[in-house]
């Protein structure tokens, strides 16, 4: 449904239109984006929200309606109806004896009888209901038929029935109905809930000067006495009660043809007020193309066996009655200003009519989807820019909760609902998303379905849970606010490594997990990557082959958010690595090399290989297995010059020297007895004579330091003398 109302707003729009129309006349095709004010008027829902509990009460689960025959005469002079509704239903329980129907409590309507066949049934009238007592019990699967005959003046609840052609016009010049969500019960008794679809025959009797339009195919007309004509309409597919509709007055017809996906033809018949034919030709000129576009996108038009068309009525918006949208006469202006409503109501034929909401809490499956259809039509005409601009026109910073909304026909349901589909497209990608939408249609055509089922259908194409999305955006209110920034380090090997930070700064600090598109601007073109943002404060690393000159986050606005603000990331050493990511934040080290992975970069790590030997004391600072050997503290000299000592840390071989204290302390060699000894024992065969002081110096040697390399420092920190020559 898309509504607008209010006389002043109509005139205001009309005068704007004339201007726009004269300017836009040369632009083809034309699809003006409605202003927020137009949408506001369209959707100022005065419909009262009806709690599910009242209208989906248990007893109606006992039976399933299969068919309604609604045989009603509409009498304009008295604004009354008279006739009968015959309900064919199937029991779903054992011993069904009570059938609870919805029928508005109204002293001006009299039920003359309720019968099964020729048997008169008793009944009572709980508030807004009829409790019919069947004359026998029916078991599961058994069908029965009851006929309610009644007449009187229906009360119009939220404009469920109107008797005028135009606002302020004479009463009794037309009849039209608008039953969504629970107005059907004001003019015909039914099981008035959207989860029980049934086929419908409509026998509308009206003054012979009128044409009565209805749902489905016109299967016959009969001229009756007293200048009355009966129009008999029949839907091939089942529909819900709120979509059953009459629109009748003195109409002219405007005909178009839709070529089906298989090359067949389907009639498009519009019923407009006499004199509006040529304006309608222009206003509706895009409709066949719209049907073709939606059919290509989602699957064939759902009621291709019957028809499509629009019937002018008093309302300032449109209502997607199956196959026969009711369309505000004021919108037929001979321009394309209201093409968005034409597209919206048409999209409803898939979303709402073919696939209906199981409960009114699911109404976004109607309105969000139909509104999203407007954006897709904008995309069809204007490409990606047209699509994005249209989505942006639906943006609001004050959306509530989509599922089970506080206002059944508020902006949240329409516009945030459309944004939810837009976001899902962003998550799944164009191809998978459209396939999932087709699945949704195929799986639920002629059925009623829930939001949970929709999530499951999307998940099947996505290949994973979409709870992260539905729990935040469909079942809750709120928005993320983003901050984002980038710093880029030149790694010197043709790679530029960017650190991208994304912060969620919404006051609630409720986490929104979403894939986020990040675009790095480089001299070699823009690079867009999708990152999985699942922390309130998160860094990502992205590489490019050219220097990065800027960043954009979610530049095509795939995510519904309150704000996005670019921030500068602190980088005191200007190496392109932000301070908080920099493993040496005050030493430029673009590559962030960290040999021992201890989070201290090589550029500032005092012990790069983390072997316990500081770099300054480590002859192999990047080899934890090599380094300056520890000292050999105790050498045992046994009789006969048998030397032995404890292995020193890291020592692979040993040098053994012998000399005087003076010689050795001076850093000389004395005598180099052996170099490269791989054991910790040595026999000094040339033992000096007794009384001759000699000293041995055993030094470890680490081959990893290089054969001729340093032997590190002694216990005082002084460099050791060179190894044995
Ligand atoms: Ca830095
Ligand atoms: Ca640094
Ligand atoms: Ca380190
Ligand atoms: Ca070291
Ligand atoms: Zn709608």
Q: How much of the sequence is in beta strands?
A: 25-35%
Distance between the termini: 98 Å
Shape: elongated
Query: So what's the oligomer here?
Result: single chain
| Class based on secondary structure composition and strand pairing | alpha+beta
The major β-sheet equals:
8 strands, mixed
**Counted beta strands:** 35
Q: Count the helices. How many? A: 13
Rg for CA atoms: 42 Å
What is the spatial order of strands in the main beta sheet? 5-4-8-2-1-11-14-13
Helix percent reads 10-25%
Bound molecules: calcium ion, zinc ion
Low-confidence stretches: 4-28
User: Taking all residues together, what is the mean pLDDT?
Assistant: 89
Please write out the topology.
Blueprint: H1 7-24, H2 36-43, H3 52-55, E1 63-75, E2 80-91, E3 96-102, E4 109-116, E5 119-120, E6 122-124, E7 129-138, E8 143-152, E9 161-164, E10 171-177, H4 184-187, E11 199-207, E12 211-213, E13 217-224, E14 228-234, E15 247-249, E16 251-259, E17 265-273, H5 277-283, H6 287-298, E18 310-313, E19 318-319, E20 325-328, H7 339-350, E21 355-357, H8 364-393, H9 411-428, H10 430-444, E22 447-449, H11 451-462, H12 467-474, E23 481-490, E24 496-504, E25 514-522, E26 525-533, E27 537-544, E28 548-553, E29 563-566, E30 635-638, E31 642-645, E32 653-659, H13 661-665, E33 671-677, E34 681-683, E35 695-701
Parallel strand pairs: 1-11, 18-20, 21-22, 23-29
Antiparallel strand pairs: 1-2, 2-8, 3-7, 4-5, 4-8, 6-7, 9-10, 10-15, 11-14, 12-15, 13-14, 16-17, 19-20, 23-24, 24-27, 25-26, 25-28, 30-31, 31-34, 32-33, 32-35
Bound molecules: calcium ion (4 copies) and zinc ion (ZN).
């Amino acid at each position: 449904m898309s509504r607008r109302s209010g006389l002043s707003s109509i005139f205001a729009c009309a005068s704007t239109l004339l201007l726009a129309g004269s300017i836009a006349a040369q632009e083809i095709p034309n699809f003006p984006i409605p202003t927020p004010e137009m949408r506001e008027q369209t959707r100022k829902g005065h419909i009262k929200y009806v709690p599910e509990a009242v209208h989906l009460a248990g007893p109606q689960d006992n039976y399933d309606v299969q068919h309604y025959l609604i045989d009603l005469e509409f009498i304009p002079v008295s604004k009354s109806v008279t006739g009968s509704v015959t309900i064919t239903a199937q029991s779903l329980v054992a011993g069904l004896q009570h059938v609870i129907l919805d029928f508005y409590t109204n002293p001006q309507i009299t039920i003359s009888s309720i019968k099964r066949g020729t048997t008169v049934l008793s009944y009572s009238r709980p508030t807004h209901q009829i409790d019919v007592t069947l004359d026998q019990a029916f078991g599961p699967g058994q069908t029965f038929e009851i006929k309610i005959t009644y007449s009187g003046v229906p009360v119009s609840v939220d404009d469920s029935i109107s008797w005028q052609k135009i606002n302020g016009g004479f009463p009794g010049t037309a009849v039209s109905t608008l039953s969504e969500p629970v107005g059907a019960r004001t003019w015909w008794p039914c099981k008035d809930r959207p989860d029980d679809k049934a086929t419908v025959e409509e026998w509308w009797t009206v003054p012979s000067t009128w044409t009565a339009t209805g749902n489905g195919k016109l299967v016959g007309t009969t001229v009756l006495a007293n200048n009355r004509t009966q129009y008999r309409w029949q839907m091939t597919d089942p529909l819900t009660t709120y979509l059953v509709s009459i629109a009748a007055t003195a109409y002219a017809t405007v005909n178009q043809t839709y070529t089906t996906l298989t090359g067949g033809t389907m009639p498009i018949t519009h019923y407009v007020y006499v004199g509006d034919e040529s304006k309608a030709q222009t206003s509706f000129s895009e409709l066949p193309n719209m049907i073709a576009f939606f059919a290509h996108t989602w699957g064939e038009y759902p009621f291709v066996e019957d028809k499509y068309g629009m019937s002018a009525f008093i309302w300032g918006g449109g209502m997607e009655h199956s196959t026969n949208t009711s369309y505000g006469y004021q919108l037929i202006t001979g321009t394309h200003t209201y093409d968005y409503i034409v597209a919206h109501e048409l999209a409803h034929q898939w979303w709402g009519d073919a696939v209906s909401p199981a409960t009114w809490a699911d109404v976004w499956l109607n309105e969000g989807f139909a509104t999203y259809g407007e954006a897709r039509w904008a995309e069809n005409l204007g490409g990606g820019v047209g699509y994005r601009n249209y989505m942006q026109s639906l943006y609001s910073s004050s959306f509530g909760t989509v599922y089970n909304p506080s206002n059944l026909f508020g902006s949240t349901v329409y516009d945030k609902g459309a944004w939810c589909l837009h976001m899902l497209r962003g998550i799944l990608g164009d191809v998978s998303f459209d396939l999932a939408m087709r699945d949704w249609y195929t799986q639920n055509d002629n059925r009623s379905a829930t939001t949970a089922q929709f999530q499951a259908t999307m998940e099947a194409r996505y290949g994973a849970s979409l709870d992260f999305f539905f729990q935040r955006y469909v079942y809750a209110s709120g928005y993320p606010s983003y901050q984002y920034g980038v710093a880029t380090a030149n790694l010197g090997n043709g790679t530029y490594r960017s650190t991208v930070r994304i912060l969620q700064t919404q006051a609630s600090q409720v986490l929104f997990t979403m894939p986020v598109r990040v675009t790095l601007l480089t001299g070699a073109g823009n690079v867009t990557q999708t990152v999985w943002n699942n922390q309130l404060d998160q860094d990502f690393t992205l590489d490019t082959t050219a220097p990065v000159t800027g960043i954009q986050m979610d530049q095509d606005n795939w995510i519904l958010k309150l704000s996005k603000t670019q921030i500068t990331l602190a980088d005191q050493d200007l190496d392109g690595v932000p301070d908080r990511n920099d493993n040496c934040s005050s030493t430029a080290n673009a590559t962030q090399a960290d040999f021992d992975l201890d989070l201290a970069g090589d550029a500032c790590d005092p012990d790069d290989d983390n072997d316990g030997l500081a770099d300054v004391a480590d002859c192999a600072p990047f080899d934890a297995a090599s380094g300056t050997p520890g000292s050999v503290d105790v050498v045992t000299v046994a009789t006969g010059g048998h030397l032995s000592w404890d292995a020193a840390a890291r020592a692979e071989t040993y040098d053994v020297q012998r000399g005087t204290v003076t010689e050795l302390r001076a850093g000389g060699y004395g005598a180099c007895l052996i170099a490269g000894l791989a054991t910790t024992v040595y026999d000094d065969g040339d033992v000096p004579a007794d009384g001759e002081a000699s000293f041995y110096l055993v030094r470890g040697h680490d081959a990893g330091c290089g054969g001729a390399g340093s032997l590190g420092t002694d216990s005082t920190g002084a460099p050791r003398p060179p190894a044995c020559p």
